[in-house]
Amino acid sequence: MDIQVVDAPENKRYEARTGEAVAGFAAYRLADGLVVFTHTEVDSAYEGQGVGGVLVRGALDDVRRRGLGVLPLCPFVKSWIERHPDYADLVPRDGPAASAD
């Protein structure tokens, strides 16, 4: 399955798209140089196919390219980062992110 991850700022979310269909999304808000991920959801038709992981990786790659940090309030995003330590540098160890743990 070909999945493209795109930022949809008008909806305040990253979307995992396959063709014209939105297979999943990661909702966020922007605050103080951080992308605050609040909720991730995968459409039931795409569950168990790796869409969530592709979505989070694509979103975090975009955040890194933009020079921003991440506050993972969403449990899925938080656990994904914990399993992929090469993305841990996106989560500040002081300031707002530290108080969210």
From TrEMBL:
Keywords: Acyltransferase, Transferase. Pfam families: Acetyltransf_CG. It comes from the Bacteria. One of its GO terms (molecular function) is acyltransferase activity. Residues 6-92 form the N-acetyltransferase domain. It is an enzyme of class 2 (transferase). InterPro entries: Acyl_CoA_acyltransferase, Gcn5-rel_NAT, GNAT_YJDJ. Its EC number is 2.3.1.-. PANTHER family: BSR4717 PROTEIN, PROTEIN NATD1. This is GNAT family N-acetyltransferase. It comes from Streptomonospora wellingtoniae.
